[in-house]
Amino acid sequence: MDRLEYAMFRILRLFRKTPLNRILRAGASTHMFTDCFKDFDKVAAVRRIFGDKTTEVLSNLKVDFTLFSGYMYVDSSNGHLVVSSRYLKTGDKIDVYLDLIHELFHVKQFMEGRDLFDPRYSYVERPTEIEAYRYAVQEARRLGLTDKRICEYLKTEWINDRDFKFLANAVNVTCP
Ligand SMILES: [Zn+2]
Predict the structure, then answer these.
(1) Which of 158, 159, 131, 91 minimizes the C-alpha distance to 83?
(2) Separation of 12 CA from ligand 1 center, angstroms?
């Protein structure tokens, strides 16, 4: 197994398969984070976000599954993580994992009372987004992802070319 395969192997173990299948079949619903994902409290990148409070934060975190398409975000009215059931089911597991790291970083920002949707900034210019992307990119590099692969991760259909270049530059990733 090379480094990336090992990382993948470790990541797949973080998804609680049977409960997750049951939860996803239920469609839109609210669940505890720890019922959907396991051992995130043992992931170094997560422990660096919450420190000693990691287990406590994760065991109190709620996940709202939505049938709407999209990826995931933190609901700033209640701090819940909102996840598209379809993305969780069909998304590339490395992308999903990096998104979870990104969103957990937002959970921390939310706990600090920061405005996750500060309208003074566009999406890619918002400081909370840049920080969360930088953190996810750092984890992607640790996993052994190349800049090319990280670019694929950063490029989503709802981000235009100019914003994509801005974001890649802001997180120090070289994209073609
Ligand atoms: Zn974000």
Answers:
(1) 91
(2) 22
